[in-house]
Hints:
This protein has helices at 31-46, 72-75, 80-99, 115-122, 149-156, 158-167, 173-179, 189-205, 208-221, 228-242, 245-256, and strands spanning 6-10, 15-20, 53-58, 104-108, 112-113, 125-128, 133-135, 171-172, 184-185. It is α/β, with parallel strands linked by helices and 264 residues long. α1 (31-46) runs parallel beside α3, α3 (80-99) runs parallel beside α4 (115-122) and α4 (115-122) packs across α5.
Amino acid sequence: xxxxxxxMDVTRDxxxxxxxxxxxxxxxxxxxxxxxxxxxxxxxxxxxxxxxxLVIRAEGKVFSGLADFDWLPHTxxxxxxxxxxDAQAIADVLIxxxxxxxxxxxxxxxxxxxxxxxxxxxxxxxxxxxxxxxxFSEVRHGFVPALSLPYIIQAIGITAARRYLLAGDPxxxxxxxxxxxxxxxVEDTAAMKAKLAHFVDHIFAAAPGAIAATxxxxxxxxxxxxxxxxxxxxxxxxxxxxxxxxxxxxxAAFLDKREPNWRT
Length: 264
């Protein structure tokens, strides 16, 4: 794409790869990256007859960080409408990943935080290397992880979500595997290539219509479907939080490289 925040490649046999490509800002979500992701996902859905699967990975040593330092200062001056538009765009990306008819495989080869963790949780299969680390640190910065929350709960369950979302402390790939956020730990680059090929071969051997129907039924069977009403609720919650005093203090502290003061 023109600004290269996101790269997409589709092989002749129908495997698409989306690469988050803003390593200077740790591939953290910003409006440009989000818009590129939305466009890629829309293109894949429109071509579901020829694209059989999607791999999401990241350029650089970090899968996705908490914040884009170039973009973050601007959010402190957002109007209510701008905040809601920003939240809706990210929510649209996450639900598009979940609702793609094709299987989506996340390849995580480094730390992940923020919306990147929501993206991982929205995928169908997650492969990670030992270098992967995870943290839901939003509350420590005055933020509410509203947009990612439904996907996190589906991935790791309510009890673990309370434990890690409220405490905000990091955990390693072994714990992520135990929780169910990571499906398989893959030791190195060569092993990742082989493991990815294994899953892709099995996906391509299956009927695409049956896969799409099964994906939809899995979500329905959880009893916690992520529908339009829930997405709208998370967007509203995100908007209320981001225009509040705690988020403002969290952003200021983050930029000033100091501990936030929640007592004022």
